[in-house]
Specification:
By secondary structure, the protein is of the alpha+beta class. It contains four helices and eight strands. It has one domain. Helix 2 packs antiparallel against helix 4 (152-161).
């Protein structure tokens, strides 16, 4: 135990013990998601990050609680099978197996991969990389519901933070810039060819 304590003390950042302790407490709070919801619907789903997401039902609700290190209060509209498939048939721009809108969003801001019909990528937002492995369970029964989550990425960030690492890039002054949802940047497959104009006087006659 003495050796472990010595290693931790050596890993303390130069900014002082106060900031170090605050960052460790914040990192611990980043691990958990506990939210309560009120509204209307019938829904149950479970997710392992972006690898697996299974659900059924739909809900329209207000959610309030704690989401991985920050207070959360927002309106959400969420659809799983079968309503998500119905929307896919009548509105191709919403095709998906899971559709989530929040705040004042009028279009699906996050949509999980659609199989029939559709492509592999949808929506305008994706989770931050450190939340790729979040384990979540969400249940909504008629008028009330709850969302419980555990972030493996943030757990690793908390553990390694004791030794001076910052995998979440959220310690100290960087914390105000952290985000849960990030806009998806459109990437071009290739850059269009540029036209090169010949220099004046460079052309040679016969």
């Amino acid at each position: 135990m003495k050796k472990l304590a010595a290693v931790i003390l050596l890993a303390l950042p130069a900014s002082g013990c106060g900031g170090y302790a605050v960052d460790r407490v914040r990192d611990f709070g980043d691990i958990w998601r506990i939210e309560l919801g009120a509204g209307g619907g019938l829904q149950a789903d479970a997710a392992v990050g972006e690898l697996l997401h299974l659900g059924v039902g739909s809900s329209r609700r207000w959610s309030l609680g704690w989401r991985y290190g920050e207070g959360c209060a927002e309106k959400r509209v969420e659809d799983h099978f079968p309503l998500s498939i119905v929307w896919s048939a009548v509105a191709p721009d919403t095709e998906s197996l899971h559709s989530l809108r929040w705040g004042d969003g009028t279009q699906s801001q996050h949509r999980c991969s659609g199989i029939v019909p559709g492509e592999l990528r949808h929506g305008s937002h994706e989770k931050a990389s450190i939340h790729y492995w979040d384990i979540e369970v969400n249940v909504f029964a008629l008028l009330v519901g709850a969302n419980i989550g555990f972030s493996i990425g943030q757990f690793v960030d908390w553990i390694t933070g004791f030794f001076g690492a910052d995998l979440g890039d959220d310690d100290g002054e960087r914390r105000p810039h952290r985000k849960y949802w990030k806009p998806i940047e459109e990437k071009k497959d290739f850059d269009p060819p540029r036209q090169v104009q010949p220099k004046r006087g460079s052309a040679r006659g016969p």
